[in-house]
Amino acid sequence: MTPSADLSQTMDRILNTAADNLRVAKILVQLGLDPNNVTYDAIFNRLLEIFLANITLANMFALIGAIFFVATLLTQTMVPLRVANMIGCAFFAAFGALAGSITTFFLYLLMVPINAYRLRQMLNLVKKARTATQGDTSMEWLKPFMTERKYRKGDVLFKKDEVADEMFMTLTGMFLVKEINVELPPGRLMGELGFLSPDNKRTATVECIEDGHVLTITYEKLLEIYFQNPQFGYYFLVLTSHRLLENIGRLEDIVAQNRIAQASAAASDPEIMKNTKQK
């Protein structure tokens, strides 16, 4: 006797035992099965009949929509998730229209433009981030995700070594990085290095020296955008690296200017020149 025959007989015995239960018998009758003759083949054939009897265009649309909704659960990044969700909603809307369910139709139909808007927003974010890496480092493409805040002259936005939890972009006014005595005009980014540092500590103190407005975004929100789209994360790292290199270049210029000033002072004062040679 083959293993498949043994399995079939075992399944038949289990089904016959279950059929002896009155509750199970009622369920079998509702499914169109004979409680006195329940076999594995009978159940398979009945399910096949139900499946074939319910193959309609509306149900096929619903099945395809369900497949795309399952795909959204398996998708790890936001852009393909939005695309799969839009396709799934479109098929479910078609199912609602063909099945005559107005509620289902309008529910999923409204979800299509919502997902399309979010998809467009994310694609624009990535596109502008890519453009920024090619020369435009204004980071204005982050504005839709930021909130506005006002500061007055003398206000300290943050201090060096404080724990950081948000990033800033200047809109109006002037702000001073006290450690390096550099003024930040409108359109500049502040506090991005705290997002990348292991302990999220501020690397400098920034004070408002002229009333102005800034836009802020929390690191939590920035991290959410970062992980929703790895491509955006890459471009953000390129941009912040560019900012860091700018700061290094600025410090190098300051050091070079100080050396030139010291050399000029030494050249104009013989006593300083003498002390310099002795050193």
Kindly summarize this structure in a few lines.
It contains ten helices and eight strands. It has about 280 residues and is of the alpha+beta class.
Task: Please describe the topology of this protein.
Blueprint: H1 3-19, H2 22-30, H3 40-53, H4 57-74, H5 78-99, H6 102-133, E1 147-151, E2 156-158, E3 166-170, E4 174-177, E5 182-184, E6 189-190, H7 192-196, E7 206-210, E8 212-218, H8 219-228, H9 230-268, H10 270-278
Antiparallel strand pairs: 1-8, 2-7, 3-6, 3-8, 4-5, 4-7
Report what the structure shows.
The protein has 279 residues and is an alpha+beta fold. The chain has three domains: 3-53, no CATH class; 57-133; 140-229, Jelly Rolls. It is 63% helix and 12% strand. It has a four-stranded antiparallel beta sheet with strand order 1-8-3-6. A four-stranded antiparallel beta sheet has the order 2-7-4-5, with no helix packed on it. Helix 4 (57-74) packs antiparallel against helix 5 (78-99), helix 5 runs antiparallel to helix 6 and helix 9 (230-268) packs across helix 10. The mean pLDDT is 77.
**Helix tally?**
10
- What is the level 1 CATH name of the largest domain? Mainly Beta
- CATH fold-level name of the largest domain: Jelly Rolls
**CATH architecture call of the largest domain:** Sandwich
SS content category: alpha+beta
Average predicted confidence as pLDDT: 77
Work out the oligomeric state of the chains in this entry: single chain
CA gyration radius, whole angstroms: 34 Å
Which of globular, elongated, flat, extended, rod-shaped describes the shape?
A: elongated
- Which series of helices and strands comes N to C? HHHHHHEEEEEEHEEHHH
- Unreliable runs: none
Main sheet attributes: strand count, strand direction, barrel closure: 4 strands, antiparallel
Strand order of the largest sheet: 1-8-3-6
Measured between the Cα atoms of the first and last residue, the distance is 102 Å
Our estimate of the beta-strand percent is 5-15%
The named CATH superfamily of the largest domain: Jelly Rolls
Q: Please tally the β strands and state the result.
A: 8
DSSP helix fraction: 55-70%
What count of domains describes the coordinates?
A: 3
